[in-house]
């Protein structure tokens, strides 16, 4: 199947539109749509927020039946075929007399994949699939991960000196990286559905773990959306029950006097053998997860299962070296985001990644460099796990006529 | 003083010519020269090797007196005024009836700085100084360092995993970085006048420390020069006298059966309290330097003084973490060249930079990021020492008429 240059341009435009939803659509995916007639764009839409119009509907909304008749629609994700929060988009495209629909990728949910396309085909619409599929997948790594693996896309943040240290021997670590790198973290937090940290980190740094919209980095007009940017859920591992009532009233995370995050949800994770306290704050809730006493850590796999069940597409892990190492050692991460500062912290400082020990080079953990970005005097490196390659690979799905 | 756009272009060309000498001119500086008449380049020259023609002479060599009369010469370094290995270039420009000479920078040797320019001015030549001075200085960081500080420009190489480790706990370190990064090292070695390493490294890796011309990275026609690329002197610190006769006949460094470096000089550094053995190889010699028994290391300052006295412009330090840390801890380096591989080597692996320990963030060593280069899956980062800024800063030198 071959696509024209114009097809590529229109789909690229739809992908750009979809990106505008990056801070707001979860748990829904980012989707963009462009309606084209006589080689001109006559309608544009993107999905902004769960419960509001899908991209196709937003692209069609101002168009007359005359305009849409015999037009082409470019959509980054297969139009839906089920009555959910809104009527099925496939039907809306059919009702608008759209002649041709170009789809970047199938719905990742195997139960519905192909159904929207079949609906269109059965109505006589010319459907083409697979244009800029990799780019379309890149829009929704978190959503795809949850659909395909039942677990979120996991990004683990590290901040390191040039010599691989996260703190001095006495625990001092403010500030390893500069202001630009710290602001850069805001964009990752804002894209996340949940931030995972630990009671130790929250108490040591009195961390708010909140999103400051004014520090976000994006390049499109966005004033109306900035207002809607959600604060991610905070999931705090607390194996020792440190986050008691006293701490909850003192810490910025829990709406202390410094906090600007009122109303956001905080999930405190306790051992499944613990007795849970009554919550002192109405935005705090407790969950219990299995704890591995010999390894002295929570069962990360069980945590990721919990996240998947609770519609968390993207998990941003921002804590100390020990938690980061748990994810890396068990290969339960998708990407490492590493900030490296031009500092040497020397002997006895704390290792940024205490995994191992390893006895042979073949045992060491191999990553794959994905991006490299300069932030003032610091660098941001993103590395992907080997398993990531499978997670985001293009999936070929046969489309057959349904046998129902 | 203002220079025209054409002046800038011609000087930039002279600088590009000078760069061709980067692997061959030491202990002399890299110098380029362009002769321009009626806004056209009529002669080009660059210095290739000590004992052969200077840039000005090479630029003039094919030109007639008629051509050079009233021409302008662009030179990256002040023309010499003394009879050395060749006759003074200032006189040759005067003899050629050059009307105007544009000079990027003064001779860095304070004993002769300004003398070439005065000679030209006294002959009625219109001399302009300071065009693209910083670029001209960048050509000759090693030569300038030796002239201005009596010590070489010191580059310390590190190869590290992402988590700041140079070897596993058991010493394994082959290979942390990939083939592209290892080839990249060749270019640094080739630019160096001497490579500094240790007996420990040479024995553990059976390292040749040689330059393989076919792996060098440059972007100009260079076939004739490749043949002339010199093997840097190897300076090997040997505090325990490990490089005895037996090792010398077994190791690749000493023309062992694997070696391709016959004829190059090897300097073995022993403690000044040691009795020196008679050399077993005719390309090996011994020197003695002070040794700090309490810190368990040679006096690096004394080593750098020795290098300066022996016309070593650029010193490339390629050994283990301990030697690199000695340079960094004492701030005796100009740049760190760090290769970072996408690997995690984990706990108990060896720190790449064992300095300190430090008790406060203010004590940690701050570097300045200069360049960032992707090499396959690895990165090369160059960081400069704070003192470097002074070393390469433009030096204002008053030019006065001599009072002799």
List the helices and strands and how they pair.
The structure is a homodimer of 404-residue chains.
Chain A: H1 5-19, E1 32-37, E2 40-46, H2 55-60, H3 65-68, E3 72-75, H4 89-95, E4 100-103, H5 115-122, E5 126-129, H6 133-138, H7 141-149, E6 153-161, E7 165-167, H8 179-191, E8 194-198, H9 199-205, H10 223-226, E9 233-237, H11 245-250, E10 266-271, E11 284-289, E12 291-292, E13 297-298, H12 300-309, E14 314-317, H13 321-329, E15 335-341, E16 343-344, E17 350-351, E18 365-366, E19 368-375, E20 378-384, H14 386-392
Parallel strand pairs in A: 3-4, 4-5, 6-14, 6-15, 8-9, 8-14, 9-10, 10-11
Antiparallel strand pairs in A: 1-2, 1-3, 7-17, 12-13, 15-20, 19-20
Structure report:
Chains A, B: It comes from Psychrosphaera saromensis. Chains A, B: Pathway: Cofactor biosynthesis; riboflavin biosynthesis; 5-amino-6-(D-ribitylamino)uracil from GTP: step 2/4; Cofactor biosynthesis; riboflavin biosynthesis; 5-amino-6-(D-ribitylamino)uracil from GTP: step 3/4. Chains A, B: This is Riboflavin biosynthesis protein RibD. The structure is a homodimer of 404-residue chains. With 404 residues, chain A is of the alpha/beta class. Chain A has 2 domains: 135 residues, Cytidine Deaminase, domain 2; 247 residues, Dihydrofolate Reductase, subunit A (3-Layer(aba) Sandwich). In chain A, 27% of the residues lie in helices and 24% in strands. Chain A is built from 14 helices and 20 strands. Chain A has a 9-stranded mixed beta sheet with strand order 11-10-9-8-14-6-15-20-19, sandwiched between helices. Chain A is elongated and about 70 Å long. The C terminus of chain A is likely disordered. Chains A and B meet through β16, β18, β19 and β20 of A and β16, β18, β19 and β20 of B.
